[in-house]
Write a structure and sequence with these properties.
About 55% of the residues lie in helices and about 15% in strands. The radius of gyration is 16 Å and the shape is globular. Helix 5 packs antiparallel against helix 6. Helix 1 links the parallel strand 1 and strand 2.
Length: about 170
């Protein structure tokens, strides 16, 4: 009997912070990885808001709400494209971005008040600290942590190397 079950995708955890210019820069790498691997690579957004960015925690919660409303990555990328505006405008930018994508902005507003996604963000942050994440972006694939907060040079190639090994292994 042949095993024709689909290959399970390789998981790439992307520890990210939505007010981080380096994370915005990493979007090109993520697009290239998506193009190369399609659904053989599962990109998972993991939150690591940094204290130095005062709107990053709210943005992480907003991204979780966007995932719940079915447009998590589109929202994440739209906010990352505006890191400077997020720094100056804060929560109104998060709501405007939700509206632009056709999401329920009132639900975003309520969520920022009731804090329903705080536990997810806190859990991500705690797990990140536990595995040694100190800055963003940081990638974890196949049990290896790759720190893109210091330099993204060669990072995509390294991710591809690991993904190729895991997919053929």
């Amino acid at each position: 009997m042949s095993d024709s079950s689909p290959v399970r995708p390789v998981v790439l955890d992307v520890w990210c912070e939505l007010q981080c210019p380096d994370c915005r820069g990493a979007l090109d790498d993520l697009h290239a990885l998506r193009a190369r691997y399609g659904d053989r690579l599962e990109l998972r957004l993991r939150h690591f808001p940094l204290d130095k960015h005062k709107h990053a925690y709210a943005a992480a919660q907003a991204a979780e709400e966007a995932f719940e409303q079915g447009q998590g990555w589109a929202y994440t990328e739209a906010v990352l494209a505006r890191t400077e505006q997020l720094a100056s405008q804060g929560e109104p930018l998060l709501l405007d971005t939700a509206r632009e994508l056709g999401l329920d902005a009132e639900e975003f507003d309520t969520m920022l008040i009731d804090g329903r996604h705080m536990l997810v963000v806190d859990a991500d942050q705690a797990e990140g600290r536990a595995i040694g994440v100190t800055g963003t972006p940081t990638y974890v694939i196949g049990g290896e942590r790759l720190d893109g907060g210091k330099s993204r040079q060669g990072l995509r190639e390294r991710v591809e190397e690991i993904a190729d090994r895991l997919l053929t292994g």
